[in-house]
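Order emerges. One example.
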Amino acid sequence: MVLRITSLVENTKSKEHLGCESGLSLLVEWQNKTYLIDTGASELFLDNAGSLGMDIAKVDYVIVTHGHSDHSGGVRALCQTTNKKFQLVLNLHFFDKKFKQEGEYLRHIGNDFNEEYLQTENVATVFPLTDTCELEDGVYVLSGIQPTEVGGQQEETSFVVLSNGAYAQDSFQDEQIMVFDTALGLVVMVGCAHSGVENIVETVKQRLQKPVYAVIGGLHLKDSGDERIEKTIGYIREEGFLLATGHCTGERAMLCLEAAFPDLLSLSSGTVIQMDEA
């Protein structure tokens, strides 16, 4: 059995005929099911999928990792161009209003659709009621990961959420990750890892009681200082898992990660990662 991950869109591109944008969308094929993780910032992921010969109509599940527009911005285009046979998996906090503080102002960085839109479009929407939900055999959606390590979420004070009528620093209660329980070990798929890669990996190991083989997705180190980057590299080295990253990881952090890990994989638009369980 092969786990195949295709990067439909990311901040950079691996092939000249593809597009790129500040966003992320990954297509995962495993055990005769297809999972779309995030939809980028626009319909560009659909254009790239067509150029790559990928049939989005065959997607079984669409998982949006959190309510930022660079991950949910393509949902409307997906609904308008497919037969909508997929199940859309969202966290219960997904529709909390998201902002970024810029000086004395708040800029909206959340979704451009709501629950009413999904109902109008007859999109089958799933809201997991537990923080460890098994979608299919060996396929999990995890949430409720607390950001506690040094240099984790507490550095990201510019993110603000409006929930229950009050503004507060965003603790990313809506963030959810996917985990595939493969013969190689657990493959962890993240959008931005706002909770911190250490918290995420440790939570996954604790809940599923198995080792992590790979982490795929953005690490949101783009605004981080040397301390957090160094601690992140130290943790990854200690754990020894395979890493494929990009998007919000940031140019400086990527350079440091590339220097530390020669086997680091990119997520540039069009990149295909295959993990053979045989």
The domain at 2-276 is CATH 3.60.15.10 (Metallo-beta-lactamase; Chain A).
